[in-house]
Specification:
By secondary structure, this protein is of the alpha/beta class. Helices cover 28% and strands 18% of the residues. Helix 3 (126-141) crosses helix 5 (219-238) and helix 5 (219-238) packs across helix 6. The protein binds uridine-5'-diphosphate and manganese (II) ion.
């Protein structure tokens, strides 16, 4: 039985959960109020998802930015562990965005896996590096990346894969529950609250707090998402505003207005500093320790 989560039952063309049983995890919420599955370990069958994806002959993109000192500090491990764990058995194309293409580590890639490096300008402030990703991604999705890939994941570089991250995570649009905030009451979530900001959520608004370190979806859906966030950031800038958590605030506004088709449990982007939690059984991506003094100016 698949439970009663409507979007989990959607045509498999759009949803590759290989979903077995939403009731397998009575300890956690496995379906949103709008009917999207929340992917917890044990609710899906990765082998079924793999077969569904293979039948569709997909190409899956993975974008990552490595600007300034983030490149030396994180990029090699991010890519090496992606080779071991990200969409193994599918066709994958990495897009690395950096101001120093020559410094990108040369990696021996598996069959059907490609790496493309695109040059970006280095913004002076780390906040601007982070926010400019939305504009750059929008352009890339409208260009070669968008022609090559059917689905794309967009990730921070200051993390690494620790176990299988496969097509069960694919959907038209995918949002990541923030590891530090998934069990917080709504009124305490760190949304932008300044009503003048394009990212503002009013009291009572907001479903979950999503983490900008990982989001994904179809090329078309991500074109919309990145356009919306870029416009919001631009509008704020012209008004002399900057949202509390930068692009993440705008992402949260977007997913409040346009609900994600799939939500990933914090296991898909976990912070080891939180320590053991009964419901976190199988972390797939782990944050690196925050060493801002080393990587930020
Ligand atoms: N980033 C970068 N260089 C910078 C600032 C940010 O490459 O100077 C990229 C990098 O991919 C990083 C992401 O933007 O992972 C978001 O920044 P950060 O991870 O520092 O934000 P946090 O996760 O701490 O909110
Ligand atoms: Mn990060």
């Amino acid at each position: 039985p698949m439970g009663t989560c409507p979007m989990a039952k959607m045509s498999l063309r759009d949803n590759f959960t290989g979903l077995l049983n939403l009731w397998a995890r009575p300890d956690v919420l496995t379906c949103t109020s709008w009917g999207a599955p929340i992917l917890w370990d044990g609710t899906f069958d990765p082998d079924v998802a793999q077969q569904e994806a293979i039948q569709q002959n997909l190409t899956i993109g993975l974008t990552v930015f490595a600007v300034g000192r983030y490149l030396e500090k994180y990029l090699a491990r991010f890519l090496e562990t992606a080779e071991q764990h990200f969409m193994v058995g599918q066709r994958v194309v990495y897009y690395v965005f950096t101001e120093r293409p020559a410094a990108v580590p040369r990696l021996l890639l598996g069959p059907n896996r490609h790496l493309r490096v695109e040059r970006v300008l280095r913004e002076r402030r780390w906040q601007d590096v982070s926010m400019e990703r939305m504009r750059t991604l929008h352009a890339a999705l409208g260009g070669r990346l968008g022609r090559e890939a059917r689905f794309v994941f967009c990730m921070d570089v200051d993390q690494h894969f620790s176990s299988a991250f496969g097509p069960e995570a694919l959907a038209e649009s995918v949002a990541q529950l923030h590891a530090w905030h998934y069990h917080w009451p709504q009124r305490l979530l760190p949304y932008e609250r300044d009503a003048r900001s394009a990212a503002a959520l009013a009291p009572g608004e907001g479903d979950f707090y999503y983490h900008a370190a990982l989001f994904g979806g179809s090329v078309e859906a991500l074109r919309e998402l990145t356009a919306h966030c870029t416009q919001g950031q631009q509008r704020d800038r012209t008004r002399g505003l900057e949202a509390r958590w930068h692009d993440e605030s705008h992402l949260n506004k977007y997913f409040w207005l346009y609900k994600p088709a799939k939500v990933l449990s914090p296991e898909f982007c976990w912070s080891p500093e939180i320590g053991p939690r009964a419901e976190i059984r199988h972390p797939r991506v782990l944050w690196a320790p925050k060493e801002y003094a080393l990587v930020r100016d």
